[in-house]
């Protein structure tokens, strides 16, 4: 990844988030709260006065809407970035409650030794495609802001910060509330977290 500073953002709230169910439609839009969250995180980025900000989004509607709010606030274009979309949970997990990710976590230990969703994607596979996507359009002159999804962000952060994905999934230390912001910097030792899952921009609303 050419850039040495990277912002990762989860999309704003949707009806599926409120219902706490897995496998939301790709076209699931922000609800009224999510739209307000998107405006709040957009104002936050506008106040950072970043050098050469570039806004990227998962192809899913909720991420595109959140990213567009940020891009509008920064007066830059928004670019859809295939590869940073949410985990495909597959038919066996579709519609199940979020709580099953904790109470039924043993089901994520697959018979081939990987960790993920039977009939869907593994967390390792999600990290692979996410990082491959980041290699494509980003340049050293940009400060990229990538709007993605909760599960996908956990997967890629585990890889970037050299953490074991099973441990992270259990303790949820990299979980992101809606529009939470993570800021990373590239150092000689690799990527380091400046902040993780920050939602300070929502505290004033």
UniProtKB/TrEMBL annotation:
CDD domains: HP_PGM_like
Positions in coiled-coil regions: none
The organism's place on the tree of life at top rank: Bacteria
Cellular component aspect of the GO annotation: cytoplasm
Signal peptide: none
Keywords on record: Glycolysis, Isomerase
Presence of keyword Isomerase: yes
GO MF annotation list: phosphatase activity
PROSITE patterns according to UniProt: PG_MUTASE
Residues the entry annotates as binding substrate: 10-17, 62
Matching InterPro entries: His_Pase_superF_clade-1, His_PPase_superfam, PG/BPGM_mutase_AS, PGM_Phosphatase
PANTHER family reported in the protein's UniProt record: BROAD-SPECIFICITY PHOSPHATASE YOR283W-RELATED (PTHR48100), HISTIDINE PHOSPHATASE FAMILY PROTEIN-RELATED (PTHR48100:SF1)
Name of the featured protein: Histidine phosphatase family protein
Organism listed in the record: Deinococcus terrestris
């Amino acid at each position: 990844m050419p850039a040495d500073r990277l912002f990762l953002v989860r999309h704003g709230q949707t009806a599926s988030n409120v219902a706490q169910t897995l496998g939301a439609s790709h076209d699931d839009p922000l609800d009224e709260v999510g739209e307000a969250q998107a405006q709040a995180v957009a104002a936050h980025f506008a106040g950072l006065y970043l050098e050469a900000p570039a806004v990227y989004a998962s192809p899913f509607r909720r991420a595109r809407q959140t990213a567009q709010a940020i891009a509008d606030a920064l007066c830059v274009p928004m670019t859809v970035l295939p590869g940073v979309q949410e985990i495909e949970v597959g038919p066996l997990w579709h519609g199940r409650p979020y709580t099953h990710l904790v109470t039924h976590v043993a089901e994520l230990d697959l018979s081939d030794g990987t960790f993920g969703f039977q009939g869907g994607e593994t967390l390792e596979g999600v990290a692979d495609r996410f990082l491959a996507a980041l290699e494509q359009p980003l340049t050293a002159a940009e400060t990229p802001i990538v709007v993605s999804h909760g599960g996908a962000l956990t997967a890629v952060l585990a890889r970037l910060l050299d953490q074991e994905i099973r441990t992270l999934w259990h303790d949820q230390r990299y979980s992101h509330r809606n529009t939470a912001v993570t800021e990373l910097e590239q150092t000689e030792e690799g990527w380091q977290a400046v902040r993780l899952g920050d939602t300070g921009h929502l505290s004033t609303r």
